[in-house]
Amino acid sequence: MDIIKEIYDAVMEGKVDEASSRVQQALNSKVEVNDILHKGLIAAMDIVGERFGEGELFIPQVLWSAKAMQAGMDLLKPHFSASDRTEKGTVVIGTAKGDIHDIGKNLMAIMLEGSGFKVADLGVDVTPERFVEKAVEVKADVIAMSALLTTTMQSMGEVVSLVKAKKLPFKVIIGGAPVDQAFCQEIGADAYGMDAADGLRKVKGLLER
Amino acid sequence: MNIQVPREELLKQLGYKQSPRPKLVNMADEMLGLVNNLLEPMLAFKEIQDEERLPPFLKGAVLKYTGAATLGPKLENKVKDLFDEGKPAEAYILDTAGSIAMTKAGDTLWNEIRKDAASKGFKKGLRRTPGCQGIDLETQEWIFGKLGDCGLGIELTSSYMMFPRKSLSFLARFGGKLKGTFSCKGCKQYADCTLRG
Q1: Do A178 and B24 touch (CB under 8 A)?
Q2: ipTM value of the model?
Q3: Which residue from A78, B9, B73, B140 has the highest number of Cβ atoms inside 10 Å of its Cβ?
Q4: Of A102, A148, A101, A139, whose CA–CA distance to A120 is shortest?
Q5: Single pTM value for the model
């Protein structure tokens, strides 16, 4: 079987060891690194994300696939030159100020990483100023915020205001149980992610604009 | 308090309506094997007398309670360790098992309060947790002030979140007429709410 297809299948199946060994095998065989990345690892993860969004796959399987993808990426990284842009973009992520819930945020971070994004995870209880400072520091493309409570989601609007007031180029995406599209529009955020898979799709969409 | 999390309930909560792959079942069993040693469930409740600073939800009730329950810090510490060790699927499954256990602890607390209320002649009651419609999060401070040093080990952050995170608190009322226009149906989480009595 084609080695790229085997890498693709290993990620689809969430087989971490197999993804590593097949990527190593491909590297040993001088297969083009970009083909391994885009046609093998990323292509598989894109389908995993789609199937999750369609309710065919559930979170544990997505996490396995993301881990398999990461294992492959770790082997590929030394083969990219410093000028190669291996990441799809950089995302600063965190839980909104006052909120300490992080499971949803962690899942989103793992899915972003698994799909080829560079992620700066600020953790929980992150102030609006910290989101913006970090985004400037890492030259982020997107700021992603999560909140679990109606009381803590208000600070998301402050981040949007800061970004706009300083005329910074970052897109802002929000997610979490109390948040919806109407709130997203109300505060002027660029996108709302209903869940981790939808969030990932929206982040990709924001960067294609 | 004895809390059990059945495998079927965990798999259903994870989204699996049919039997998932054996790898997932094995992982779920592995995490359920950890749960019993990680849970330190505790609860406390207290009957509240009439006073000036009653939260609006309790006003007009004949019998009033406040209560809280927690699973302790061990489970969520283990979840964090698993994430840090690069085992996110295990972490997520264990956290989901913890959420099921927390719901059961909340139900146990509610049943204990209902038993106490029944001994005083009240059968039907309502419970609401801070953050629900009509109950500000600041009410947490009042609740834990009333519960006092009840041994639960729950701490509030400056934004009224609870540590351990797998904790809950609520107000309960029996008898009397609920004042205001409180309605669960206006709540976004109405369909999924486990707190409607």
Answers
A1: no
A2: 0.81
A3: B140
A4: A139
A5: 0.85
